[in-house]
Amino acid sequence: MLKFIQSYLDHRGPFPARIRDRHKQFWQDPDAETVRNTLLDAEDGIEKWKDAVNWQRRLSNKYNSREFAGKHGCKVAALIWKGRDIDKIDFKKLPENYVIRPTIGHSANLVFLMKKNYNLFDKKNYTTAQIKEALKTAIASNDKLEFLVEEFLKNEQGQNEILKDYKVYSFNGEIACIWVINRLSPKSGNGSFYDEHWNLLKTVNKIYPAGELEQPPKCLQEIVRQAKILSKAYEIFVRIDFYATDKGCVFGEFTPTPGMGTCTTSYGQKLLISHWNKYCAGKI
Q1: Which of 227, 147, 136 lies closest to 179, judged by CA?
Q2: E strand residue ranges, the chain
Q3: Which of these, 85, 175, 241, 268, has the minimum number of CB atoms within 10 Å of its CB?
Q4: Which residues span the domain enclosing 267?
Q5: Do 122 and 198 share a structural domain?
Q6: Which of 128, 151, 174 is the last residue of a domain?
Q7: End residue of a domain, out of 151, 185, 201
Q8: Which whole-number Å values give the CA distances from 182 to 214, 231, 240, in the listed order?
Q9: Residues 170 and 199 grouped into a single domain
Q10: Separation CA 167–CA 181 (nearest Å)
């Protein structure tokens, strides 16, 4: 019985409820896709970024999120190509290792983390023709979708591998926790939670099994600083993902409704809701 109650709270507690409400307000609006997929540049004035209701939806487009992060002084992966005409990607001129990801999507769907001809995410080899086919199929089903071809970021030791995720739960410039995920694939790995001073916290979300105690990344202070800057600019709760690389902290993406709030523990519910009430009171 206790396990049933805990499972119910993990999925139906106050934090998931707020996330579901935000998701409804964000994405059931008839203008949602227009807001998300109107592309902006770092040079655009902040008033242009914020000239829509729930303007943060713009940052769910991964091209826009890159530009917004760069506008606020964050490092981003070098952009090699962007667009919908997949035949215009000159694969012969791409570096040996590269990343392809969609501007719209979640859970690393349609992400190709290519090390030579091998996708580290799904552990499969791909020919250029196979990659093109997959991208064209996706493009054909969504007239707003584009793809980004970016540099393959190296870890702090200068190696090409699946990078650790540093997911910062942020509330208008304040950090509740940092979730470090050692990723084996898009949906497998292990994780642990820390405060901004790298004190170990109890489990906040149990979608991944608990991992061993992590050493802080060399760029921890940069991650914390950039998270606070971007979170303050975002204005409301958001999870901001970063990578620790041989170039320092590099921005990944904004996640406004992480996992729809599911699998959040009772400890996590209290931590996140207390930050929301204190630093984002009355905000979506």
Answers
A1: 227
A2: 79-83, 97-102, 112-115, 118-119, 124-125, 147-151, 165-171, 174-185, 188-194, 237-245, 248-255
A3: 85
A4: 2-34+158-279
A5: no
A6: 151
A7: 151
A8: 10, 24, 16
A9: yes
A10: 8
What integer pLDDT is reported at residue 187 of this predicted model?
Answer: 76
Per residue in 216-234, pLDDT (tens digit) is 999 999 999 999 999 999 9
Q: Which pLDDT score, from 0 to 100, does residue 10 have?
A: 54
Q: Which residue has the tokens 């802080």?
A: 216
In contact, 101 and 109? CB cutoff 8 Å: no
CATH of the domain at 174: 3.30.470.20
Give me the residue label for tokens 């071809």.
149
The model carries a pTM of 0.94
Q: What is the pLDDT of residue 1?
A: 43
Q: How many domains does the chain have?
A: 2
Residues in the chain, pLDDT under 70:
1-11, 107
Q: Are residues 7 and 88 in the same domain?
A: no
Positive/negative CA dihedral, 257, 260, 264, 270: positive
pLDDT at 4: 44
> Are 204 and 179 a contacting pair, CB within 8 Å?
yes
Which whole-number Å values give the CA distances from 83 to 125, 145, 187, 252, in the listed order? 24, 9, 27, 19
Virtual CA dihedral for 169, 172, 173, 178, nearest 10 degrees?
Answer: 0
Alpha-carbon span 69 to 240, nearest angstrom: 10
